[in-house]
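Input chain follows. Return structure tokens only.
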Amino acid sequence: MDIPSPARSLVQLQKAMTRVHTTFIQSPLGSLWAPPGARFLVLHTTGRHSGKERQTPLSFTKDDDSYVVIASNGGAARHPDWYLNLQANPEAVVDVRGKEKHVRAETVSGSARDRLWNAAVTSFGGYAGYQMRAEREIPVVRLRPIDRV
């Protein structure tokens, strides 16, 4: 019998917690659980290697009709998989309170990034700490709604 490495066990635990979080956000109780002012969505991407649908719960802020998410990966050295999936295929779906919308992702830069980053940090102060830990600029991603025929 193989004993998983601590790193592998941590990845398996993270995946299990993501599934639980996703299920809870999509349930009728999801909006009751969130702290006041907190907003969550479930991002549906296509795996860049597997081609399989991936679901990731994320906090978000708004910019007009767009959703803004932060690719912090908890301040890890590498970008989160969902962000890499969006780089390979920027079209995705967001589920916000049971309503699905098709979106196109774009990584924001310059003064727009600064503005949206500051709004995200105001919404969740932990992002500032993540940026201090990360050895990369944490991407700010705008998810613009698109019409699908």
